[in-house]
């Protein structure tokens, strides 16, 4: 399994009580598997992604990312694991307004200390793979919402992650563009052997995933 959460418990302080956001959650995603997590607002879906992304350390349980046990890892080790093995796609593209499409991707390689020449080749390849050939020199305001989300996906793949975590990728898009973005994620997951987890409210998106996990009050149930 490329991504594995075992018996994960996560609580947040809530006044003089604690709120259980993840209640003994288990999740296993294999290479090339496209998994969806659905559930009502506040049920713990974003918390699950944050734990899988090593952004939050749970109170208990084990988290394995790309074969690395991150449970006991230091903050610096977690940052390195996240940078080298995890791609994260948020709801809003969060692109840097002044940068071209190509530079949005090159920044990622630069942060990871990769040589610029190889990075430029990879960035162009990824932009072609997400259907953005010819848009390399456009800035975010010159792109449509769907195109910005494609840049976001290409950027998340820049450092060749094994795990791709995607939070509500279609929420800012109309139905047709949303469907195209999910189809793109499904294709990339298979082609690149990614372990992909997508949180979604979009029932149409579920037609293209392999597994649907349901979250309710912090409890994750499996197909
Ligand atoms: N930093 C935090 N501090 C305290 N409580 C939090 C924090 N983040 C989330 N929560 C609470 O934890 C629970 C799970 O939140 P989470 O954001 O994971 O749910 P979600 O399923 O992603 O919701 P949505 O679909 O609305 O984004 C909620 O009750 C939320 O209010």
Give the SSE layout.
Elements: E1 3-14, E2 17-29, E3 34-38, H1 45-52, E4 60-65, E5 68-69, H2 75-85, E6 86-89, H3 101-111, H4 116-129, H5 145-156, E7 163-167, H6 175-192, E8 195-199, E9 211-216, E10 219-221
Parallel strand pairs: 3-8, 3-9, 6-7, 7-8
Antiparallel strand pairs: 1-2, 1-4, 4-5, 9-10
Bound molecules: adenosine-5'-triphosphate.
Adenosine-5'-triphosphate binds next to strand 2 and helix 1.
Task: Kindly describe this structure.
- This is Putative ABC transport system ATP-binding protein.
- Keywords: ATP-binding, Nucleotide-binding, Transport.
- GO terms for molecular function: ATP binding; ATP hydrolysis activity; transmembrane transporter activity.
- The chain is of the alpha/beta class and 223 residues long.
- The protein has a single domain, classed as Rossmann fold.
- The chain has helices at residues 45-52, 75-85, 101-111, 116-129, 145-156, 175-192; strands spanning 3-14, 17-29, 34-38, 60-65, 68-69, 86-89, 163-167, 195-199, 211-216, 219-221.
- Strands 6-7-8-3-9-10 form a six-stranded mixed beta sheet. Strands 2-1-4-5 form a four-stranded antiparallel beta sheet.
- Strand 4 (60-65) and strand 5 (68-69) form a beta hairpin.
- Helix 4 (116-129) packs across helix 5 (145-156).
- It is globular, with a radius of gyration of 17 Å.
- The two termini are 17 Å apart.
- The model has no long low-confidence stretch (mean pLDDT 93).
- It binds adenosine-5'-triphosphate.
- Adenosine-5'-triphosphate is lined by residues 12, 19, 21, 39, 41-47.
